[in-house]
Amino acid sequence: MSIYRLKNLLSPRSVALVGASARPVSVGRAVLENIRKAGFTGQFGLVNPRHAEIGGVAAVDSLDQLPFVPELVIITAPARAVPGIVDQAGRRGSAGALIVSAGLGHGPGSLHEAAITAARKYGMRLIGPNCLGIMMPGVSLNASFAAHMPGPGNLALISQSGAIAAGMVDWAAQRGVGFSGIVSIGDQIDVDLADLIDYFAMDHKTRAILLYIESIKDARKFMSAARAAARVKPVVVVKSGRMAQGAKAAATHTGALAGADAVYDAAFRRAGVLRVSDLRELFDCAETLGRVESPAGKRLAILTNGGGIGVLAIDRLVELGGIPASISADARKKLDEVLPPTWSGANPVDIVGDADASRYAAALDVLLADPDNDAVLVLNVQTAIASAADIATMVTERVKAYREKHRNWGKPVLASWIGADQNIIETLSGAGIPNYPTEDDAVRGFMYLVRHREVVEELSQVPPAMPDTFVPDARAARQIVAAAIADGRQWLEPVEIKHLLEAYDIAMVPTYAAGDVEQAVAYAEDIFAQGATVVLKIMSRDIVHKSDVGGVVLNLTTVEAVRAAATDILGRARKLRPEARIEGVIVQAMVVKAKARELILGLADDPTFGTVVVFGRGGTAVEIINDKALALPPLDLQLARDLIDRTRVSRLLRAYRDVPAVKPDAVAMVLVKLAQMAADIPEIREFDINPLLADETGVTAVDARVAVGPPQRKFAGSGAANFAVRAYPSQWERHLKLKEDWRIFARPLRPEDEPTIHAFLRHVTAYDLRLRFFAPMKEFTHEFIARLTQLDYARAMAFIAFDEATGEMVGVVRLHSDSIYESGEYAILLRSDLKGKGLGWALMQLIIDYARSEGLKAISGDVLRENTTMLEMCRQLGFDVKPDPTEPDICDVRLKL
After folding, report:
1. CA-to-CA distance for 795 and 349, rounded, in angstroms?
2. Segments of 343-401 assigned E as strands
3. What sign has the CA pseudo-torsion 840, 841, 842, 845?
4. Among 106, 236, 382, 700, which residue is least crowded by beta carbons within 10 Å?
């Protein structure tokens, strides 16, 4: 598992520091002083062969001389010594090391590689190198050289920049915000972003996860971890380099549109991660997410003593997609009773500039009780009439009373005291009320909460492996692409593209390839006979954008016009591009649809995230208009609709004036088909349909370009190796026949199975639950079950079994791979009243078959010694069963595949 031994590193009971320096101004000395100041209560040892003591702390020559085995070894020694220290720590039995030192290099023969090799010999985990360190307030551990130690709290920060992590600590100290953990990951020699996201997603002390990212190494692993975490708690990211990487040089429009940052944005959206643009927004997110839960909806009531600032808040709310709450008739009546007649009578609830603490309290009580809003924002503009500090104190008292009444599950309350003194900030923060410098920041904070709730709903959708509304001829399509690659070509010919689109039921205008002028005339005569006019286009694999050489002539109506146009096109192309291979001209029927919209749809290849789907406004000026949106495949209809809705051109797809609406879902279905094509044919590098004409009758591709090449395996495991997100593996659905003709249906687990799991657990005895979870389980929270059911099938798989006769769930088996996708850990649970009928054996065989198909080398598990039935089944299945050397009540079982 990717969280393997991370608890030992992030919540260690014993620590050793290797490399602390006697020099007052050094990284090693700073780390030593920070560990001492934080008051780490576990065992601590200092290793330095040159000094008997440093700063009053006794030192030993080597790790072997410590009187205890350190779980965590912190290394600040010179880079050349790091691999040897890691090896020594592994021999001693340490769980892992934090490498603060820099300069280990990269690649074969580097110190980096030597350190990894040493760690893997002993199953050690490594954080770093070249990092600020870790700060874990819960265990009073500050293993960093940051200037301050954060207080305990419920935010986790994972940062690729030590400076960003240090800055967050300083900000948090001013705002009274605490952390469950801060980890600077440096060069990610082993433990990476995804590993830490997994860890903090399972940490009950962590309410939200904050990320600072510069780049992602393993996109599928990141997407898997982020999607799983975002379902149970907010994940917020700042990604640097937004402007440094513009659109790459690409032969197709879709390739040019898929700039690196746009792809990251699409990936974050698909993962359910809330992206913010800068540190200020990250601070605001931390302020909000660290204090309150997401509201039930997005209706915000605003209470203010200044009408102008209230209106500004409403404006921003509407702009960001929130809803100004209405005031119910009952609430309005109560407000009339407690407020002066000059109050605004609407939202924002302006209680007038002379409002004192009691007036604020009375109005706030009414709004908190009003069912017509989901959250309340309290604004205050300081005046000489009423004390802003007194108002803040009163608001905190009313909020505290409200929370106690609702057991902390009531509406969120947010605040902004404009120009507030530090004591007011401390009053609001001390009461757990998110507070912000301006009304704009406060409204954004509210919308972060709304967005997280929407994310959870979106992530519950499961994209199907194959849309069931059409059956593509994938075999024919693969043959077309394979023939082109075998011929040494990078681009498909126009007629090949037409056949490729036909294989996926995507309409394209009649298209013919003419090798010379007279053949073009013959094809044109066929088109004229059908009552259409003709378009001619230059045909050359070296001229991708035909209009650049005047290679397109439209609306030809006679044979003579076709002959003259073909002659001109060929002559012009040979003159302007003498080096280009000219194969002839493309002859197409002229599609005249006055009210059709010109769109662009396509596929692009990203070096980090693999295949990306692009949609936007089409035409020759597509890059200038730059109205586009990106998404990671696979897609279902809902995801395709969401992609379309993120563009401005989506508004034109609806009816307006005398223009009828585009046929419902016609465009979305083409996007789904393109995504499926990318899964079926990874040899497609770029795909460009521009324009796709869309109107009330449907869609038609007018022009398309397809770049192909040998497939590139970007991601481990089965499924589309060019997809960062794996599709729902419906191919693993099975109908099983067990003892006594008992028929079972087994399929991969889905997010919507959570209620089914809850019902199933009522049929499992406390004893069987203890055998499965190694501890008594009194209740199963939503967070716990959601973590089990919300899979994305990249690193984890679970099969759920149903009795075909009753439809009831009868068992589940799951497998979670390790961080390097070499082995997996299994777990199985059956209904207690249905054991002994062969179900366990069948499910174990199914998960073993799956692991083999994924290319895993082994399956392992931990089984209690008293679980003799499971141990015997493991032996019969070929598992090697051994006692756990550290846990006498547990057996380790392992099957080599």
Report:
1. 50
2. 349-350, 375-381
3. positive
4. 106
Q: What is the mean pLDDT of residues 19-39?
A: 90
Closest CA to 761 of 750, 752, 751, 772: 772
Tokens of 342: 């000059």
Query: Which among 119, 69, 98 has a CA at the least distance from the CA of 9?
Result: 98
286: left (phi over 0), alpha (psi -120 to 50) or beta: alpha
Cα 530 off chain centre by: 51
Q: Which two tokens stand for residue 107?
A: 């690649």
pLDDT tops 60 at residue 251: no
* Whole-number Cα distances in Å, 698 to 94, 501, 508, 893: 64, 15, 11, 58
Return the bridge partners of 58, or none: 53
User: Are the CB atoms for 859 and 823 separated by under 8 Å?
Assistant: yes
Sign, Cα dihedral of 103, 196, 107, 264: negative
Q: At what angle do helices 474-486 and 666-680 cross, to 10 degrees?
A: 60
DSSP-derived pairing of the beta strands 734-737 and 684-695: unpaired
Beta-ladder partners of 587: 512, 536
**Residue carrying the six token digits 């007052």:** 24
Percent of the chain with pLDDT over 70: 95
**567 φψ region: left (φ > 0), alpha (ψ -120 to 50), beta (else):** alpha
**pLDDT 10s digits, 558-568:** 999 999 999 99
DSSP 195-224: HHHHHHHH-TT-SEEEEEES--S-HHHHHH
Q: How far apart are CA 185 and CA 127, in angstroms?
A: 6
d(CA 790, CA 797): 10
φ, ψ at 811 (rounded to 5°): -175, 165
- pLDDT per residue as tens digits for the range 480-489: 999 999 999 8
CB 34, CB 169: distance < 8 Å: no
Rounded to whole angstroms, the Cα distance separating 711 from 206 reads 41
How far apart (Å, rounded) are the C-alpha atoms in residues 815 and 837? 22
The encoded tokens of residue 471 equal: 């059956």
**Greatest distance between any 2 Cα atoms in the chain:** 99
Rg of the chain taking only CA atoms, in angstroms: 32
**CB of 120 closer than 8 Å to CB of 95:** no
Nearest to 519 by CA among 588, 585, 590: 585
Neighbour order of strands in the sheet with 890-896: 734-737, 743-748, 796-803, 809-817, 823-830, 858-864, 890-896, 880-883
Q: Exposed, middle or buried, 300 (CB in 10 Å: 0-12/13-18/19+)? A: buried
Choose among 255, 260, 262, 5: nearest CA to 123: 5
Looking at the DSSP assignment, which residues form a beta bridge with residue 715? none
Residues 6+ positions from 38 with CB-CB distance below 8 Å: 140, 141, 142, 149
Helix axes 474-486, 494-503, angle to 10 degrees: 160
pLDDT per position as a tens digit, 91-135: 999 999 999 999 998 888 899 899 999 999 998 999 999 999 999
Whole-angstrom distance, CA of residue 747 vs CA of residue 799: 5
Two structure tokens written together for 435: 């507070």
Answer for the pair 305, 351: CB distance below 8 angstroms, yes or no. Answer: yes
What element of type H or E holds 600? strand 597-606
The per-residue DSSP string of 645-713 comes to HTSSGGGGGS-BTTBPPPPTTHHHHHHHHHHHHHHH-TTEEEEEEEEEEEETTEEEE--EEEEE-S---
Between CA 539 and CA 569 the distance in angstroms is 10
Q: Compute CA distances 175 → 384, 388, 677, whole Å.
A: 26, 18, 51
Distance from C-alpha of 818 to C-alpha of 822, rounded to nearest angstrom: 6
